[in-house]
């Protein structure tokens, strides 16, 4: 459930907010589940982790993938400019 919630948002969510959404747990339980998920992601060689940032948790890609993510963002920006009548 925590994984699904984090995949559905683009902003960091505090552990207490995640616990409230999940129900039946607290922020400490959320932290334990996040650690377990991250261990599984690492074991599976996934390109992402759940990171604690801005007083919350967010699903993020690993830094090694930044060059490709940057290309994606650049392509999206260029596509928007083109649709708006740009070059």
Mean pLDDT: 92
Form type: elongated
CA gyration radius, whole angstroms: 16 Å
Tell me the strand percentage band. Answer: 5-15%
Question: How are strands sequenced across the largest beta sheet?
Answer: 1-2
Q: How many individual helices?
A: 4
Q: What's the end-to-end separation, in Å?
A: 44 Å
**Major sheet characteristics:** 2 strands, antiparallel
Order of helices and strands: HHHEEH
- Uncertain stretches: none
Structure summary, number of beta strands: 2
Tell me what the structure shows.
The structure is a single chain. The chain has 87 residues and is α+β, with helices and mostly antiparallel strands. Helix content is 57%, strand content 14%. The chain is built from 4 helices and 2 strands; from the N terminus they run H-H-H-E-E-H. It has helices at 2-7, 15-22, 27-44, 66-83, and strands at residues 48-53, 56-61. It has a two-stranded antiparallel ribbon. A hairpin with a 2-residue loop joins strand 1 and strand 2.
Give the helices and strands, then pairings.
Layout: H1 2-7, H2 15-22, H3 27-44, E1 48-53, E2 56-61, H4 66-83
Antiparallel strand pairs: 1-2
């Amino acid at each position: 459930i925590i994984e699904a919630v984090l995949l559905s948002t683009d902003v960091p969510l505090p552990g207490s907010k995640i616990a409230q959404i999940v129900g039946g747990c607290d922020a400490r339980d959320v932290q334990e589940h996040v650690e377990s998920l991250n261990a599984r992601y690492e074991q599976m060689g996934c390109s992402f982790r759940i990171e604690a940032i801005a007083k919350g948790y967010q699903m993020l890609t690993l830094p090694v993938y930044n060059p490709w993510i940057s290309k994606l963002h650049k392509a999206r920006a260029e596509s928007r400019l083109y649709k708006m009548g740009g070059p």
